[in-house]
Amino acid sequence: MGNGRAQCRRLGQVLAEACAEALPKPRLEARSCAESAKARWTVAHFFEGVCFGLFLSMSIVTVQLGQCGNQIGFEVFDALFNDSHCSRGLCSKRENEAYQASCKERFFSEEENGVPVARAVLVDMEPKVINQTLSKAACSGRWKYGQHSCFCQKQGSGNNWAYGYSVHGPRHEESIMNLIRKEVEKCESLSGFFIIMSMAGGTGSGLGAFVTQNLQDQYSSALKMNQIIWPYGTGEVIVQNYNSILTLSHLYRSSDALLVHENDAVHKICVKLMNIKQVSFCDINQVLAHQLGSVFQPTYSGEGLFHYRRNPLGDLMENLVPHPEFKMLGVRNIPQMSENSLAYSTFTWAGLLKHLRQMLISNAKMEEGIDWQVRPPLSGLPPLGKMSVNKETHFNTSIANLVILRGKDVQSADVGAFKDPALYTSWLEPVHAFSVWKTQRAFRKYEKSAALVSNSQSLVKPLDMIVGKAWNMFASRAYLHQYTKFGIEEEDFLDSFTLLEQVIASYCNL
Length: 510
Hints:
Elements: H1 2-22, H2 33-55, E1 59-65, H3 66-84, H4 93-107, E2 108-110, E3 116-118, E4 120-124, H5 127-140, E5 150-152, H6 161-185, E6 190-198, H7 203-218, E7 223-230, H8 240-254, E8 257-262, H9 263-273, H10 281-296, H11 312-320, E9 328-334, H12 339-342, H13 349-361, E10 398-407, H14 430-433, E11 434-439, E12 448-456, H15 460-475, H16 481-484, H17 490-508
Parallel strand pairs: 1-4, 1-6, 4-5, 6-7, 7-8, 8-9, 10-11
Antiparallel strand pairs: 2-3, 9-12, 10-12
Helix pairs in contact: 1-2, 3-4, 3-5, 3-7, 3-10, 6-7, 7-8, 8-15, 8-17, 9-10, 15-17
């Protein structure tokens, strides 16, 4: 932080000197040396602030909630740090330094000993996972979590959303929000909050919904993006569908965007693309971290080379969430493969983007198994009808798409196929529906890579399945007593069903 401010201070002094030389001298009696020096310092200080605002990234405070959120959070920070310090960036030293500084300002602060400290607050109701997470970060020797950035207790939530939301939330609200406030105060400029949590458990989902609601109340002008993990379709938690609908409905009211990862889809990526025989949660979390890093690492602004985007969350929201009723985002990456396979692979931008576009319109989560039969409706023809959640194969209509390209010859990549009006809903002009971000700095070990963040119909079917399963349980009043005894009444469930059924209908009618 200090280095960035010092650079801006020097640049401010240079600009102040230039202004002093360029401006005409007033025909007034000469001021004293002290007055002149004071005026020059004021101008330099002004330009220092301007430079600081123009060139340094706004910071993101990450809130890691529950076992899932803390384990993923560690992998995300580790991936961000390792990528930004990778010597194989395939770019100039100057650009690599600018990339590294931008990443650091977004996600890390610095202590006196020079070790980067993650801009994060860790919350769990049991100490085991937090202790493991702190230890792993410290043992890396490269970065660490803050000494006073954690909150944990001795009693978990027992996979009960109501307990996390209604008991742990109010009981520990002050302590948790104080930790977040202290982290916010370390930021020169806050972009917003990135909240990592599960959707189907107790602490991550219930307490996570409560904390997000508090962030909206206390930091209403700051952006909030929740990264949520969609449970396995055959999960072991009997009430996971109840927990999921309560989480989603509450986040829909208090979050600006929901960045969703489906466990089933990520598991398939591990097996089919990464060639992992026995998939662990660590494997899944590393794939998630790779995808999140491909979105959040610096990319050029419209000002040209070496000028990186200042406000990553703000830019994401502006490009992808044009209406508050549509805030569910998904991520696709290409290529994704094991290091052994990567060593023998070469890619072209044309090939990568052709596959990525087909992944989008056929709603494929990975390159393998793409359905090439799916085609967008021909431009100028009437729509074929509204989407049916029961239809196995359908064209995946988008509201907005963001393609992020990283690597060699990136300026030559042609993204014109993503501008086709047939890909998008009719109520948003394609010029507003599609964006592309680029940097010639490679991401991790991929010479060329592309990420697609999409606001589309891709989550309609899994959402409809969860709502349907939860409704069947609710109709038979199964397990409701576990929620009502902690203050979540039948009316709360009905409100959640109503909201989510409206979300499904809105996406289906695109």
